[in-house]
Amino acid sequence: MKRVFFFLAAVFFLFSVQAASQSLNEIIDLQFDAVKQDKFNKLQTIIKKITIKEGSISTPMIIYHKRPNKIRIESGETGNKNITTYNGKTGWSFSKEIGDTAPQTLTGRALEEIKFMADLDGYFFCYRERGHDLELIGTEKVGGKNTFKIRCTKPTGDEALLYLDAKTYLLTKTIQRLKDEDVVHEKETIIGDYKSVEGIPMPFKFQISERSFPKESSIGKEGGKTVTQLITNIELNKELPDLLFDIPDIEQ
Questions:
Q1: Structural domain boundaries enclosing 122
Q2: Please, is 186 exposed, middle or buried when counting C-beta atoms within 10 Å of its C-beta (0-12, 13-18, 19+)?
Q3: What is the pLDDT of residue 32?
Protein backbone atom coordinates (compact mmCIF):
# COMPACT_ATOMS: atom_id res chain seq x y z
CA MET A 1 0.00 0.00 0.00
CA LYS A 2 2.84 2.37 0.89
CA ARG A 3 4.52 1.62 -2.44
CA VAL A 4 1.34 2.58 -4.30
CA PHE A 5 1.06 5.78 -2.29
CA PHE A 6 4.67 6.78 -2.93
CA PHE A 7 4.35 5.89 -6.63
CA LEU A 8 1.27 8.11 -7.02
CA ALA A 9 2.95 10.89 -5.05
CA ALA A 10 5.99 10.65 -7.32
CA VAL A 11 3.82 10.80 -10.45
CA PHE A 12 2.01 13.87 -9.12
CA PHE A 13 5.33 15.50 -8.21
CA LEU A 14 6.78 14.89 -11.69
CA PHE A 15 3.66 16.32 -13.33
CA SER A 16 3.80 19.37 -11.06
CA VAL A 17 7.45 19.97 -11.98
CA GLN A 18 6.67 19.54 -15.70
CA ALA A 19 3.71 21.93 -15.45
CA ALA A 20 5.74 24.51 -13.58
CA SER A 21 8.50 24.35 -16.22
CA GLN A 22 6.15 25.08 -19.14
CA SER A 23 5.21 28.67 -19.90
CA LEU A 24 1.82 29.75 -21.15
CA ASN A 25 3.23 30.44 -24.63
CA GLU A 26 4.82 26.98 -24.79
CA ILE A 27 1.51 25.37 -23.85
CA ILE A 28 -0.38 27.40 -26.45
CA ASP A 29 2.18 26.46 -29.13
CA LEU A 30 1.67 22.78 -28.28
CA GLN A 31 -2.11 23.31 -28.38
CA PHE A 32 -1.80 24.80 -31.88
CA ASP A 33 0.15 21.72 -32.97
CA ALA A 34 -2.48 19.41 -31.42
CA VAL A 35 -5.46 21.05 -33.16
CA LYS A 36 -3.60 21.45 -36.48
CA GLN A 37 -4.09 25.21 -36.28
CA ASP A 38 -2.39 25.90 -39.62
CA LYS A 39 -4.80 23.55 -41.40
CA PHE A 40 -7.79 24.81 -39.39
CA ASN A 41 -7.03 28.41 -40.37
CA LYS A 42 -7.55 27.48 -44.02
CA LEU A 43 -11.12 26.32 -43.43
CA GLN A 44 -13.69 28.71 -44.88
CA THR A 45 -16.92 26.99 -43.80
CA ILE A 46 -18.02 24.35 -41.30
CA ILE A 47 -21.44 22.69 -41.13
CA LYS A 48 -22.30 20.69 -38.01
CA LYS A 49 -25.33 18.46 -37.62
CA ILE A 50 -26.16 17.95 -33.96
CA THR A 51 -28.59 16.09 -31.74
CA ILE A 52 -29.40 17.91 -28.49
CA LYS A 53 -30.48 15.69 -25.61
CA GLU A 54 -32.18 17.10 -22.52
CA GLY A 55 -33.62 14.30 -20.40
CA SER A 56 -35.79 12.18 -22.68
CA ILE A 57 -36.17 14.94 -25.28
CA SER A 58 -34.03 15.02 -28.45
CA THR A 59 -33.88 18.04 -30.76
CA PRO A 60 -32.04 18.36 -34.10
CA MET A 61 -29.75 21.32 -34.69
CA ILE A 62 -27.58 22.54 -37.57
CA ILE A 63 -24.84 25.15 -37.18
CA TYR A 64 -23.39 26.88 -40.25
CA HIS A 65 -20.08 28.75 -39.88
CA LYS A 66 -18.43 30.92 -42.50
CA ARG A 67 -15.35 33.10 -42.24
CA PRO A 68 -15.10 35.81 -41.26
CA ASN A 69 -17.43 35.70 -38.26
CA LYS A 70 -20.69 34.51 -39.79
CA ILE A 71 -22.99 31.95 -38.15
CA ARG A 72 -26.48 30.50 -38.55
CA ILE A 73 -28.07 28.19 -35.97
CA GLU A 74 -31.24 26.23 -36.70
CA SER A 75 -32.92 24.02 -34.10
CA GLY A 76 -36.20 22.13 -34.11
CA GLU A 77 -38.18 20.39 -36.81
CA THR A 78 -39.00 21.74 -40.26
CA GLY A 79 -41.87 24.24 -40.05
CA ASN A 80 -41.18 25.00 -36.41
CA LYS A 81 -37.52 25.99 -36.34
CA ASN A 82 -35.76 28.41 -34.04
CA ILE A 83 -33.24 30.40 -36.09
CA THR A 84 -30.39 32.66 -35.01
CA THR A 85 -28.11 34.38 -37.53
CA TYR A 86 -25.17 36.77 -37.47
CA ASN A 87 -23.64 38.22 -40.63
CA GLY A 88 -20.53 39.75 -39.06
CA LYS A 89 -22.29 43.02 -38.15
CA THR A 90 -25.90 42.35 -37.13
CA GLY A 91 -27.61 39.41 -35.46
CA TRP A 92 -31.21 38.23 -35.52
CA SER A 93 -33.31 35.53 -33.86
CA PHE A 94 -36.69 34.04 -34.62
CA SER A 95 -38.59 31.58 -32.42
CA LYS A 96 -42.20 30.55 -32.78
CA GLU A 97 -41.93 28.92 -29.34
CA ILE A 98 -41.74 32.30 -27.62
CA GLY A 99 -44.32 33.90 -29.91
CA ASP A 100 -42.14 35.74 -32.42
CA THR A 101 -44.02 36.85 -35.51
CA ALA A 102 -40.94 38.38 -37.13
CA PRO A 103 -37.15 38.13 -36.67
CA GLN A 104 -35.84 40.10 -33.69
CA THR A 105 -32.60 42.12 -33.86
CA LEU A 106 -30.11 40.97 -31.24
CA THR A 107 -28.69 43.49 -28.77
CA GLY A 108 -26.72 43.50 -25.53
CA ARG A 109 -25.74 40.17 -24.04
CA ALA A 110 -27.41 38.10 -26.76
CA LEU A 111 -25.45 39.93 -29.45
CA GLU A 112 -22.14 39.51 -27.59
CA GLU A 113 -22.75 35.77 -27.23
CA ILE A 114 -23.54 35.20 -30.90
CA LYS A 115 -20.47 37.26 -31.88
CA PHE A 116 -18.30 34.96 -29.81
CA MET A 117 -19.94 31.85 -31.25
CA ALA A 118 -19.34 33.18 -34.77
CA ASP A 119 -15.60 33.43 -34.14
CA LEU A 120 -14.20 30.11 -35.38
CA ASP A 121 -10.80 30.67 -33.76
CA GLY A 122 -11.98 30.52 -30.14
CA TYR A 123 -9.87 31.62 -27.19
CA PHE A 124 -6.24 31.04 -28.14
CA PHE A 125 -5.47 32.05 -31.73
CA CYS A 126 -4.13 35.63 -31.95
CA TYR A 127 -5.42 36.13 -28.42
CA ARG A 128 -3.49 39.36 -27.80
CA GLU A 129 -4.74 41.00 -31.00
CA ARG A 130 -8.31 40.12 -30.02
CA GLY A 131 -7.94 41.53 -26.52
CA HIS A 132 -7.99 38.21 -24.65
CA ASP A 133 -5.95 38.28 -21.44
CA LEU A 134 -4.70 34.72 -20.78
CA GLU A 135 -3.15 33.54 -17.51
CA LEU A 136 -1.85 30.08 -16.60
CA ILE A 137 -3.15 29.64 -13.07
CA GLY A 138 -2.25 26.03 -12.32
CA THR A 139 -3.14 22.42 -12.94
CA GLU A 140 -6.25 20.40 -12.13
CA LYS A 141 -7.67 16.95 -12.76
CA VAL A 142 -10.67 16.74 -15.10
CA GLY A 143 -12.27 13.34 -15.52
CA GLY A 144 -9.25 11.76 -13.84
CA LYS A 145 -6.78 13.37 -16.27
CA ASN A 146 -4.22 16.08 -15.62
CA THR A 147 -5.00 19.42 -17.25
CA PHE A 148 -3.51 22.88 -17.51
CA LYS A 149 -5.92 25.48 -16.14
CA ILE A 150 -5.92 28.82 -17.96
CA ARG A 151 -8.01 31.91 -17.21
CA CYS A 152 -9.20 34.03 -20.14
CA THR A 153 -10.55 37.53 -19.51
CA LYS A 154 -12.26 39.06 -22.54
CA PRO A 155 -12.53 42.80 -23.31
CA THR A 156 -16.13 42.70 -22.03
CA GLY A 157 -14.86 41.65 -18.59
CA ASP A 158 -16.36 38.17 -18.94
CA GLU A 159 -14.13 35.33 -17.80
CA ALA A 160 -13.61 31.74 -18.86
CA LEU A 161 -11.58 28.96 -17.30
CA LEU A 162 -10.03 26.71 -19.93
CA TYR A 163 -8.72 23.21 -19.25
CA LEU A 164 -6.21 21.67 -21.68
CA ASP A 165 -5.35 17.97 -21.43
CA ALA A 166 -1.72 17.82 -20.29
CA LYS A 167 -0.91 14.99 -22.73
CA THR A 168 -2.95 15.79 -25.83
CA TYR A 169 -3.23 19.59 -25.34
CA LEU A 170 -6.84 19.38 -26.51
CA LEU A 171 -9.52 21.42 -24.76
CA THR A 172 -11.48 19.17 -22.37
CA LYS A 173 -13.50 21.63 -20.29
CA THR A 174 -14.51 25.28 -20.16
CA ILE A 175 -16.30 27.32 -17.50
CA GLN A 176 -17.69 30.60 -18.83
CA ARG A 177 -18.83 33.33 -16.44
CA LEU A 178 -20.99 36.01 -18.03
CA LYS A 179 -21.93 39.08 -16.00
CA ASP A 180 -25.40 40.54 -16.51
CA GLU A 181 -26.33 43.41 -14.18
CA ASP A 182 -26.54 41.82 -10.69
CA VAL A 183 -26.40 38.21 -11.87
CA VAL A 184 -23.57 35.95 -13.02
CA HIS A 185 -24.46 33.28 -15.57
CA GLU A 186 -22.12 30.30 -15.47
CA LYS A 187 -21.84 27.70 -18.22
CA GLU A 188 -19.69 24.61 -17.76
CA THR A 189 -18.92 22.54 -20.86
CA ILE A 190 -17.28 19.11 -20.80
CA ILE A 191 -15.71 18.46 -24.21
CA GLY A 192 -14.77 15.06 -25.58
CA ASP A 193 -15.02 12.31 -28.18
CA TYR A 194 -12.46 13.93 -30.48
CA LYS A 195 -12.35 12.54 -34.02
CA SER A 196 -10.27 13.44 -37.05
CA VAL A 197 -12.17 15.30 -39.76
CA GLU A 198 -9.98 15.67 -42.85
CA GLY A 199 -6.93 15.53 -40.58
CA ILE A 200 -8.21 18.03 -38.01
CA PRO A 201 -9.21 16.80 -34.52
CA MET A 202 -12.71 17.97 -33.64
CA PRO A 203 -14.87 17.23 -30.57
CA PHE A 204 -18.09 15.32 -31.17
CA LYS A 205 -19.59 15.53 -27.67
CA PHE A 206 -20.40 18.48 -25.41
CA GLN A 207 -22.10 18.23 -22.01
CA ILE A 208 -23.30 21.69 -21.03
CA SER A 209 -24.51 22.75 -17.57
CA GLU A 210 -25.89 26.22 -16.95
CA ARG A 211 -26.68 28.01 -13.70
CA SER A 212 -27.02 31.56 -12.35
CA PHE A 213 -26.24 33.25 -9.04
CA PRO A 214 -25.95 36.78 -7.57
CA LYS A 215 -22.68 38.61 -8.29
CA GLU A 216 -21.81 38.79 -4.62
CA SER A 217 -22.14 35.05 -4.04
CA SER A 218 -21.04 31.79 -5.63
CA ILE A 219 -23.52 29.73 -3.58
CA GLY A 220 -27.20 29.14 -3.92
CA LYS A 221 -26.94 28.67 -7.67
CA GLU A 222 -30.32 28.55 -9.34
CA GLY A 223 -31.92 27.71 -12.62
CA GLY A 224 -29.46 24.96 -13.47
CA LYS A 225 -29.99 22.67 -16.44
CA THR A 226 -27.82 20.18 -18.30
CA VAL A 227 -27.95 19.29 -21.98
CA THR A 228 -25.79 17.04 -24.14
CA GLN A 229 -24.85 17.93 -27.70
CA LEU A 230 -23.84 15.00 -29.91
CA ILE A 231 -22.30 15.89 -33.26
CA THR A 232 -23.58 13.48 -35.91
CA ASN A 233 -21.81 14.93 -38.95
CA ILE A 234 -19.29 17.64 -39.86
CA GLU A 235 -18.73 19.00 -43.37
CA LEU A 236 -15.86 21.30 -44.27
CA ASN A 237 -15.47 23.95 -46.98
CA LYS A 238 -18.91 23.55 -48.52
CA GLU A 239 -20.16 26.54 -50.49
CA LEU A 240 -22.44 28.72 -48.33
CA PRO A 241 -24.04 31.94 -49.66
CA ASP A 242 -23.69 35.08 -47.53
CA LEU A 243 -27.47 35.47 -47.68
CA LEU A 244 -27.78 32.46 -45.37
CA PHE A 245 -26.42 34.57 -42.50
CA ASP A 246 -28.65 37.62 -43.01
CA ILE A 247 -32.06 38.22 -41.45
CA PRO A 248 -33.95 34.87 -41.40
CA ASP A 249 -36.57 34.27 -44.09
CA ILE A 250 -39.39 32.96 -41.91
CA GLU A 251 -41.41 31.87 -44.93
CA GLN A 252 -38.97 29.01 -45.56
A1: 2-245
A2: middle
A3: 95
* 128 inside domain: yes
End-to-end CA, the chain: 67
Residues 54, 236: Cα–Cα separation, whole Å: 28
The distance from CA 34 to its chain's CA centroid, rounded to whole angstroms, is 17
Per residue in 103-144, pLDDT tens?
Answer: 999 998 889 889 989 999 888 988 888 888 999 999 999 999
Q: For residue 80, what is the domain's CATH number? A: 2.50.20.10
Q: Which of 13, 24, 2, 18 is CA-nearest to residue 149?
A: 24
Residue 152: other Cβ atoms inside 10 A: 19
Q: What is the pTM for the complete model shown?
A: 0.84
At 217, is the pLDDT very low, low, confident or very high (cuts 50, 70, 90)? low
Continuous segment of H or E residues that includes residue 120: none
